[in-house]
Amino acid sequence: MWLIPAKPPEADDLSVAMSPCEFPMWATQIGTLHSFTLTSAYTFSEDMTTMTMSNYSHLSGESHAASISECQKIVEELAQVPYVRLVVKTTAQW
Questions:
Q1: Does residue 57 form part of some domain?
Q2: Are 54 and 41 in contact, with CB atoms under 8 Å apart?
Q3: Which residues, at least 6 apart from 91, have a Cβ–Cβ distance to it below 8 Å?
Q4: What is the DSSP string of 1-55?
Q5: Residue 4: inside a domain, yes or no?
Q6: Structural domain of residue 75, as residue ranges?
């Protein structure tokens, strides 16, 4: 087995690694998203770093936070279509 030494990170690579992870602008501009069954609502924070999933009642219009997901790392993002794959940390809310 041959091991090849890793290339030292370029200055540009460091700026990307140090930048805060944010949900994409196109997702946050949509506003509140609802599940197809209208039992969950998804909202983004103004700084685009967290997404809150809430149990939602279509009849009463009320929602109660169930979990918060924080963006940790952008794995893949496409420019041609609105698509992004992220690593998130999700914390349950009581």
A1: yes
A2: yes
A3: 67, 68, 69, 70
A4: ----PPPPPPHHHHHHHHSPP---HHHHHT--EE-TTS-EEEEE-TTSSEEEEEE
A5: no
A6: 20-92
Closest CA to 71 of 51, 91, 46, 94: 51
Residue 80 is classified by DSSP as T
Q: How far apart are CA 65 and CA 94, in angstroms?
A: 8
Split into its structural domains, the chain has a count of: 1
Q: What is the pLDDT of residues 2-58, one digit of tens each?
A: 444 445 545 444 444 445 789 888 888 888 988 898 899 999 998 999 999 999 998
Tell which residue, 19, 63, 71, 17, has the closest CA to residue 44.
71
With respect to residue 10, please indicate whether it lies within any of the assigned structural domains.
Answer: no
Bridging pattern class, strands 63-78 and 33-34: unpaired
